[in-house]
Amino acid sequence: MVLGALGSRISDALRNMSNAMLVDDKVLNDMLKEIGNALIAADVSVPLVLNLRKAITQQVNMEEMAQGINKRKLIQTAVFQELINLVDPGHKPYVPVKGQTNVIMLVGLQGNGKTTTAGKLGYYYQRKGWKVGLVCADTFRAGAFDQLKQNATKARIPYYGSYTETSPVVVAADGVDKFREEGFEIIIVDTSGRHKQEEALFEEMAEVAEAVEPDTTIFVMDAAIGQAAQDQAEAFRERVDVGSVIITKMDGSAKGGGALSAVAATHSPIVFIGMGEHIDQLEPFDASSFVSRLLG
Ligand code: GDP
């Protein structure tokens, strides 16, 4: 499983605490320190780790006043709950509505997996019976349209793009108009990325958003980015109305904690995680099952 080392270190820390003869403050603190170190090694940011430790201690101290409570169980529950809180900002992402057009715009830096994710997301909804169309508004990266077309063709998803039109705004608007008129329920717009955060990218994103009026914008972020994730997520959020996040390449990264803490810091819910290069390797994200799986 992804972040396997993190999961087993946390599980070991919990087990050590459970095996202790007496769970006193020292045992609790040692366990929290080890969990904190494991999270930091997975690139979760230090302030978040400190908050998490504080929240666990507070929960435990408060509950302790109640009589007859099993302290080990109490601590385990608090750790579990706070890990869930770390990846769940508490507000719900946009949920597409059946029978109407839902425009979903994907944004992110080049190479983070936007185009692959556009195909996966289309495939996910199509399999659930939605009428899906893909629009390639990435006119910046040579080959982006071919890549989207290839994935769409394989999955038999209708697509729209242009080899001659160089304005992403025009392609996006035309594609969305076409699918909207034809009664498509989910229209996924893949936008251009850049190698780094730069003004041209943000301006283009804003123009495309203005032209297609997305119902929701999803920020696509590579799990391998580590500590830089927070800065990147904040920069995107400042410039475009990010409704939720998809973290890609969770299959390959031990550093996914960076992306997870970016999500916590920007209060953006994670909607899916990418677990491989294939079109069916996209999983809906659920905070509590993610943490359960993480801890084995
Ligand atoms: P874009 O520039 O943001 O559109 O990025 P692409 O969609 O072209 O993806 C860049 C690379 O990442 C490609 O080689 C993809 O196959 C790969 N990729 C995307 N998502 C995942 C994922 O969830 N897991 C893995 N292992 N690779 C992925």
UniProtKB/TrEMBL annotation:
Lineage: Eukaryota, Apusozoa, Apusomonadida, Apusomonadidae, Thecamonas
Cellular component annotations (GO), alphabetically ordered: cytosol; endoplasmic reticulum; signal recognition particle, endoplasmic reticulum targeting
Known catalytic reactions: GTP + H2O = GDP + phosphate + H(+)
Swiss-Prot/TrEMBL domain comment: The NG domain, also named G domain, is a special guanosine triphosphatase (GTPase) domain, which binds GTP and forms a guanosine 5'-triphosphate (GTP)-dependent complex with a homologous NG domain in the SRP receptor subunit SRPRA. The two NG domains undergo cooperative rearrangements upon their assembly, which culminate in the reciprocal activation of the GTPase activity of one another. SRP receptor compaction upon binding with cargo-loaded SRP and GTPase rearrangement drive SRP-mediated cotranslational protein translocation into the ER. The M domain binds the 7SL RNA in presence of SRP19 and binds the signal sequence of presecretory proteins.
GO terms assigned for molecular function: 7S RNA binding; endoplasmic reticulum signal peptide binding; GTP binding; GTPase activity
Cell compartments where the protein resides: Cytoplasm; Endoplasmic reticulum
Protein name per the record: Signal recognition particle 54 kDa protein
GO BP terms, alphabetized: SRP-dependent cotranslational protein targeting to membrane, translocation
Keyword annotations: Cytoplasm, Endoplasmic reticulum, GTP-binding, Hydrolase, Nucleotide-binding, Ribonucleoprotein, RNA-binding, Signal recognition particle
Domain SRP54-type proteins GTP-binding per the UniProt entry, residue ranges: 269-282
Function: Component of the signal recognition particle (SRP) complex, a ribonucleoprotein complex that mediates the cotranslational targeting of secretory and membrane proteins to the endoplasmic reticulum (ER).
Residues of the full protein shown: 1 to 296 of 479
Coiled coil regions in record: none
Family: Belongs to the GTP-binding SRP family. SRP54 subfamily.
